[in-house]
Amino acid sequence: MSLTIRKMLEEREHLMLRPCAAHSDESLGRLRDEPQCDIRTVFQRDRDRIIHSKSFRRLKDKTQVFLTPEGDHYRTRMTHTLEVSQIARSISKALLLNEDLTEAIALGHDLGHTPFGHAGERALNRVTPGGFRHNEQSIRVVSVLEKDGAGLNLTREVLDGILNHQTESHPFTLEGNVVRFADKLAYVNHDIDDAIRGHIIRESDIPTELTDLLGHSLKERLNTLVHDIVIHSQDREEIVMSKEVSEAFTALRTYMFENVYTNPVAKGQEAKAERLVEHLYEYYTKHTDALPEELARLIANGENPALVVTDYVAGMTDKFAVATYEELMIPKAWGVY
Question: What are phi and psi of 151, to 5 degrees?
Fold first, then answer.
């Protein structure tokens, strides 16, 4: 009976999804073969594995844009991920694509992100041999580091979508391309919302030629952008925006880079965060014996120690990185006599 459930879901996909969608029973498979689940498709299993992973849980204490903001409503890497997932699922559902694959890619796309957002990424990129890119680290997280070195053994479609979610990349599935767009839509619009909340900019500061077209609020802009993608992609085997909306959105991103992402008020603490990450990296490259047991095993099995140190530092949450730095670098008080 239960075996019929997965088969029924797979057959339903062929009836409901577009021919160009990714169908679960046509997946390119996993790097390691394993028995199928009796009630879940392969992409549903990938989504569940990501949600239950330790790296996913750590996203709640990793910076999105603003370091140590005063307030409970600023985005974290976790809330960013959930917003990407929601936007991507809405687009995929409307375009009759595979929503389970879309969700799995969206939930896993930032698992390799560092503490302190892009400040931490810049620091590790400077000190790590060969550089550091969070999309590549996300693949290492799900393929090597999770489950004490066993990895999550995700499907090739999910791995490709995670690796290629950035602007300059091109996933081989439409679902991966939906996430690629949804990531940009999410971060630009929620970063505007957080910047307004943090008194970095005001809604009225955004050029009117952009807001008149895209919308005058977070809700209006997302509605415009999502509808534009759905309308212009529904009869094509690619995910696109209209020329007019795409140009306006690009201009909006440029506005954010010039007024928020490089703003000294918003980014004034990032240099300190970068130095902290560099110090932690330097300490553990000299003291690999202080690494957690599961990472020490990777070195014992032949992994490059510098790469494993990067794994450890990149996996830290903001709070854990600060606490570890204080423990290692700051002398403890003598106490009161």
Answer: 75, 175
Fill in the amino acid letter for 293. E
**Strands, DSSP E only, in 5-85?**
none
Q: What pLDDT, on a 0 to 100 scale, did the predictor assign at position 266? A: 66
pLDDT digits (tens, 9 = 90+) for 128-185: 999 999 999 999 999 999 998 899 999 999 999 999 998 888 999 999 999 999 999 9
The answer to whether the beta carbons of residues 105 and 174 sit under 8 Å apart is no
Q: What SS3 string covers 119-164?
A: HHHHHHHHHCCCCCCHHHHHHHHHHHHCCCCCCCCCEHHHHHHHHC
- 206 vs 228: CA distance, rounded Å: 21
Which structural domains are found in the chain, ordered by start?
A: 2-329 (1.10.3210.10)
Work out the number of other CB atoms within 10 angstroms of the CB of residue 308. 23
User: Is the per-residue pLDDT at 335 higher than 50?
Assistant: no
Query: Any long-range contacts for 4-11 (C-beta under 8 Å, 24+ apart)?
Result: 5/38, 5/39, 6/36, 6/37, 6/38, 6/39, 6/40, 6/41, 9/40, 9/41, 9/44, 10/41
Mean pLDDT is lowest, of 71-85, 281-295, 323-337, for 323-337
Is residue 142 within 8 A of residue 154, CB to CB? The reply is yes
pTM: 0.94
Of 234, 214, 240, 233, nearest to 225 by C-alpha is 214
β partners of residue 76: 63
DSSP summary character for residue 197: H
Q: Name the residue among 184, 136, 181 with its Cα closest to residue 159.
A: 136
